[in-house]
């Protein structure tokens, strides 16, 4: 793959992960959320916005860790991917989770931009995954749960 094609592909993947293109970004979905709504669970839904944010953080970190090392330690599904319910979450914990999402996203972008990395070469570990596939997985997973955040905000009457 030429460097120009790789740069264009990485640019598209980065934009897809950051902005979502056809849907709201994660940052927009969590912006200006009243602290008391972070842990509210409307109706019969199984989780709160806080649980979704933490699930995004945990899963994205797991994907980045998997993509960057053959020393990866697999998490137990679903127990280690979903946080337990809590009745409230303080600003420090909320902001730390959002910061970690950004840091892990940047770690992944650094992998994508590493000129020594082939986007389509199968990892020596795993069962056929590539850096390209993991980028699409992050974009797909995060956009799915971002949409759920928006739905919960709408049910809580806390959306635009």
From TrEMBL:
InterPro entries: DinB-like, DinB/YfiT-like. Residues 26-149 form the DinB-like domain. Gene3D superfamilies: dinb family like domain (1.20.120.450). This is DinB family protein. The lineage of its organism: Bacteria, Pseudomonadati, Bacteroidota, Cytophagia, Cytophagales.
């Amino acid at each position: 793959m030429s460097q120009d094609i790789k740069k264009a592909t990485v640019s598209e993947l980065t934009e897809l992960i950051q902005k979502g293109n056809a849907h709201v970004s994660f940052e927009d979905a969590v912006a200006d959320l009243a602290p008391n709504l972070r842990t509210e669970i409307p109706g019969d839904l199984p989780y709160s916005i806080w649980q979704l944010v933490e699930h995004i953080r945990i899963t994205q970190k797991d994907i980045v860790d998997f993509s960057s090392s053959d020393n990866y330690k697999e998490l137990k599904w679903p127990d280690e991917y979903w946080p337990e319910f809590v009745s409230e979450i303080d600003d420090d914990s909320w902001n730390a989770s959002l910061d970690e999402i950004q840091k892990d996203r940047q770690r992944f972008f650094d992998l994508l931009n590493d000129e020594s990395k082939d986007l389509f070469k199968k990892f020596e570990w795993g069962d056929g995954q590539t850096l390209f596939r993991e980028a699409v997985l992050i974009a797909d997973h995060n956009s799915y749960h971002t949409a759920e955040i928006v739905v919960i905000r709408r049910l809580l009457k806390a959306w635009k």
